[in-house]
Structures are given as structure tokens and as C-alpha cells.
Amino acid sequence: xxxxxxxxxxxxxxxxxxxxxxxxxxxxxxxxxxxxxxxxxxxxxxxxxxxxxxxxxxxxxxxxxxxxxxxxxxxxxxxxxxxxxxxxxxxxxxxxxxxxxxxxxxxxxxxxxxxxxxxxxxxxxxxxxxxxxxxxxxxxxxxxxxxxxxxxxxxxxxxxxxxxxxxxxxxxxxxxxxxxxxxxxxxxxxxxxxxxxxxxxxxxxxxxxxxxxxxxxxxxxxxxxxxxxxxxxxxxxxxxxxxxxxxxxxxxxxxxxxxxxxxxxxxxxxxxxxxxxxxxxxxxxxxxxxxxxxxxxxxxxxxxxxxxxxxxxxxxxxxxxxxxxxxxxxxxxxxx
Length: 336
Ligand code: FES
Ligand SMILES: [Fe+2]
Fold this sequence. Notes:
Blueprint: E1 5-10, E2 19-23, E3 26-32, E4 38-42, E5 56-58, E6 61-63, E7 70-71, E8 77-79, E9 96-97, E10 99-102, E11 105-109, E12 132-140, H1 144-152, H2 157-160, E13 173-180, E14 184-189, H3 198-203, E15 210-217, E16 221-228, E17 234-245, E18 248-258, H4 263-294, H5 309-316, E19 328-335
Antiparallel strand pairs: 1-11, 2-3, 3-4, 4-9, 5-6, 6-7, 7-8, 10-11, 12-18, 13-14, 13-19, 14-15, 15-16, 16-17, 17-18
Bound molecules: FE2/S2 (inorganic) cluster and fe (ii) ion.
């Protein structure tokens, strides 16, 4: 989990005032130097352990607010006010994490002092002509597994988003193809044709055929893709789930779409509906967490139509050498 890039905040949230963010349980101080480049340090001054996020930026240095130690963008201590005999000592340096800015987000690689082995995830069609995007973020008291499963699970939509996404009394049998590879599991809903809820009727009127795909991509991306028979229509809803600490995630939603409907109309309709659905999911997930805590731990029952969870767990626990082949493919029937 740690040898990956995670979204720590949006580009807009970060200026020269350091901010405190926790990613995978690691408290971080994130800031921009005068040159605009982001840096991320462990939020602890090596001297007397004051949070560096309470300090300030001077030129490209971060200054600790207690005794004014100055750290450059790589965390190297460059100045200790009052110290006459300067000598290099690595113990005086702040712990720095690899950081970069991409697609309007500040990404942190959660292994300090290590050369990253990968690149941050690139959201589909974000930079492609003809597509529009809006983003949103939200904190939710839940786990990565439960949040990703919720987002990708078609069977809760009839109840939690009743009428909005699907309707319970309009179910039909469909085929789902599940494929798992090294770093991703994908469920393709093959012959759903029309989706019963209001969102679909508003956003894709007159389209007879829709193919929806749910994906979980390592380290923590849940993604829905919809395409219709109306040539131009395509929609990606990607959720980057940054684990903050135990039972807390910060979800960054990136909604990218191309449609024959005008952009302003889609944003005016889609944004509030999306926020509404997000609040419904947050409420059910926090209720789940509350009850799991009340009963001192999860005890779940799986059925064949819980198509994502076993594979999501497999991918997340890959490091633990499960005795299963890494590639998996299966076709099942379900009613949605
Ligand atoms: S605690 Fe940071 S300079 Fe002393
Ligand atoms: Fe949902």
C-alpha cells in the first residue's frame, strides 16, 4: 500500500501556507515554495517535534515555528538560528516524501526517501477534447474496501438511491462479466440496455442501450464507465479513495463526460444529483461503520452477485501471497 501515489489535496487547496493532511496514517505538512513547487514532509520537526504544518514558508524554505529551523524543499536543514558552528547532520533533516502535481491534485508517494516505482494514476479522457470534468471531495468514516465496494455495487442502488439510479420493481436479468488482472478487477454489465432511474432518463434521454462497467484499480480507484448507443455519450465517474487513517477515507470524485447535451445543462443537473447520491452513500457507509464497531468487527456473508468484493480484497492483499491465480474471468447472471 505504501509504495503508491495518493491524492493528498487539490492543487487549489495548496498555497504557501502549509497545510496538514494525513495519508495512510502518515501526518504530513504540505506546502508550496515561492517557485510554486509542492513539498510534503512528515509533520514533525526533528528538533522538538512541533508540527511543521504550523510553520511558514520563506523563499523555498519551510520554517518551524518553535526555534525557526529552516528546511529546503527536500527537507534538508539549511539553517539553525543561533547556531555558530555549522556542521552537516542528517538527523536534523525533515522526513520528505516524493510529491508531484498532476491533473489538479497534489499526489504523495507514501515511502519517504525512496525513488517512486510508479507514476500517479491518470484519469481517463480528462485532457481529451470534447470532454468536461467536475470534481468533488468528501470525507467518510469507512474503510477503503467498504467505500470501493459501495461505489461499484449495482445491487444497493435500488434501495439507497431508489428511483434516482435504479428502481426495485423494474428489474431484469442481465449478464455480468467479471475479469481480474494484475492490478484491476472489472465487471461489465452486458445487456442492461436501459437503467431505470431518474438520472439515466435525464442525462441520456432517447438512448436505448447502455453498457456500464465498474472497475477497481490499485491502489484505491473505484471507477464507473457508461457508454450509450448515442454515439457521443460517454461518462466516467472515478473515485480516488485516499485512506486517511483507520476507518476514515477522503474520496476525490472526478466526473468526466461527453454528451450531445450542452455542458452547462449537464453540470447544472448532474452536479447536484451526483452530490445527492454521494450523501446517500456516505450515510449508509457511516451507518455500516457504526454498526460494525458496535458488534466489534465485520462478519459478512457473500453471494455470487457481490461481484467486486472478493477480487478487491484479493488485489489489496496481493502482498500476502494468496494461493490463487492472478487472472480470473467469470460470467454470471443477476437481476438489476
Ligand atoms: S521544534 Fe522545530 S525548530 Fe525547534
Ligand atoms: Fe451508491
